[in-house]
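Case study 2.
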Amino acid sequence: MPLVEIEFTVSPDPIPARVARLIADAQQRVEKFSDQHAASVPAFVPSDFEQVYRALVSLESAHLAAGRRFIEWGSGIGVITCLAEGLGFDAVGIEIESQLVEMAEALADEHGIDVQFARGSFVPRGAEPRLEMPDDVAWLATIGPDGYEELQLEPDEFDVVFAYPWPGEEQVIFDLFADSAAVGALLLTYHGQEGLRLQRKVR
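Prediction:
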């Protein structure tokens, strides 16, 4: 099923103080982690938290999502998931790296944010034969726990999916979303200096 591009303008509104505190705390944790553990988790590259937050604000204010369920594919230390929860989404994340899941849970707990993070793969079981999956990309690993099983949710139960694909892996994420998401669901992706894209799955 095809994806259609949705034009949107990133919100220019000031960042609320509680959000600024969360982002500042997260950035300090990322810097500390990168200094100490970058070699052990080379696939961890955080997105621009403030820019993604502003995009979620725009998405929310325009009522573009069909429902409230949000998932972050490759949730890292969980910042985007926490930001989505703060905007009223029922937000969860899936992350393959145990260290990052522990960091995400600690960040959410210390900021009083009620979200769930599953340790495992966000690639649904059985999707691999239908997609051209790279063999050597850690964050797309399919060996390990099924993240959806831990969440007790199916891939097509989410209204908004967020992901930060590495350069050259964008089409894999688009294909995975087209293959597994519900019709009407939104895919928000961050692309570094190229900014953000928003796409909807249609019939």
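Strands lie at 3-5, 69-73, 90-95, 116-119, 160-163, 186-190, 196-201.
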